[in-house]
Amino acid sequence: MAAQEHDPATRPVDTREPAEIEQTRPGTTQTPDAEDDRPERTTRETSRPGGADPHDADPDGADPGDAEPDDADPDDQHRGRFGVPGAPLNRRNPFFIGFVGGLGLLLAYGTFLGLRNAASILVLIFVALFLAIGLNPAVNRLRRAHLPRGLAVAVVALVMVGLVAGAVIALIPPLVTQTTELINNVPGFIRSLQRNETVNELVERYDILNKVQSALDAGTVGNALGGVVGGARLIFGTIFNVLTVLVLTIYFMAAFERLKESAYALVPASRRTRVRLLTDEILSKVGGYMVGALAIAVLAGLSTWVFAMIVGLAYPFALAVVVAVCDLIPQIGATLGAVIVSLVGVASSLYTGIACAVFFIVYQQVENYLIYPRVMRRSVQVSDVAAVVAALLGVALFGVVGALVAIPMVAGVQLLIREVVRPSMQRR
């Protein structure tokens, strides 16, 4: 039996593959069972409370368990000694909406108050910019005569200052002289009126004398003194406004090209060329309006000079200059010049004053409805109806400033409609 057990012939045959036999040799430590158990061992190691085995640390001494994983929670990254940041504000919260809306209302109201308080200064800036735009063609014409821009601006500014100074010099002497004569002639006018039976009957019927005496009391005198102070304030305020507009106009003319290029730089590059062409055309309309206004003012002054020579008024040239300068003021300028000339005429004689009033009433109607529309149609290329309607609406909406910009604004709107709106409608 022992011999049979150790007999190689009777030994059982190994049917395994060579690779499996190699793995079971004494020198190998890795078996298929051990390899299958490795993932489970790794899972158990990573799930231990203490993290990885301290013996598995890196050679540099860094603990692998201290390394922050890539998919860590963002709150863990911001967690510090002050705690975890809270959730962001809910923008749909009624309190948040009301608070932000209230801040918006306060900001809008503050902007309104600022614009209202600065309205007078903004009007002066606007008028100065408008005058600079209107005078810029004259500057460009001088530049084409090989003058530097600074020298061209200086020449235009000196001419403008000379016109204003000449108007003031022409206005003050006749105004003072004729006003003094008018005051001295008031008693004679009153005596002549008292000799008129119709006037005496009206005075007795409506008790005019007693009303005049009751009006001349201490309160009336105090109000008159207050009115004198208010009048002085108005005069000095007007002088300040004129000087401010004059200085700002000179500055705007000197920096006109830089301001224009800065404005064009705010337009997208794809549309800059077209915007530049349209804006330059609109600015040329403003220059044409200024030329037309000067032509109308010169015509008014010339007509006044001819009339003053016919009726024999004193200082005919000075009065013509006054009317021409006043006529540059939209709407009220012509009336102001007519009142001044009529007062001078009344100081000379009552019939001369009446003739002056009739002349200016007729002339203003002719100027407003015949001369003004025709000149503006040629210089600004605005129809007669559009010129009259624009002037009336400008005065009704914005006063003197509205009358100043009404015609150029209508010309610009017509240009935009013709070049932008109509082609856009045709493409649709």
- How many whole angstroms does the radius of gyration measure? 47 Å
Order of helices and strands: HHHHHHHHHHHHHHHH
Total count of domains: 1
Biggest sheet architecture: none
N-to-C CA distance: 114 Å
Weakly predicted, low-confidence segments: 1-10, 27-69
Number of strand segments: 0
Mean pLDDT over the full residue set: 74
Structural class: mainly alpha
Helix content: over 70%
Global shape: extended
- Proportion of residues in extended strands: under 5%
Quickly count the helices.
16
Descriptive notes:
The chain has 428 residues and is an all-alpha fold. It has one domain (119-423). It contains 16 helices and no strands. It has helices at 2-5, 18-23, 32-46, 74-78, 94-117, 119-144, 149-194, 197-206, 208-215, 218-254, 256-265, 269-311, 316-327, 332-348, 350-379, 384-427. Helix 6 (119-144) packs across helix 12 (269-311), helix 7 packs across helix 13 (316-327) and helix 12 runs antiparallel to helix 15 (350-379). Its main location: membrane. The chain crosses the membrane at residues 95-112, 118-139, 151-172, 234-256, 277-299, 305-326, 338-366, 386-417. It is a multi-pass membrane protein. InterPro entries: AI-2E-like. Residues 1-23, 38-58 have a biased composition (Basic and acidic residues).
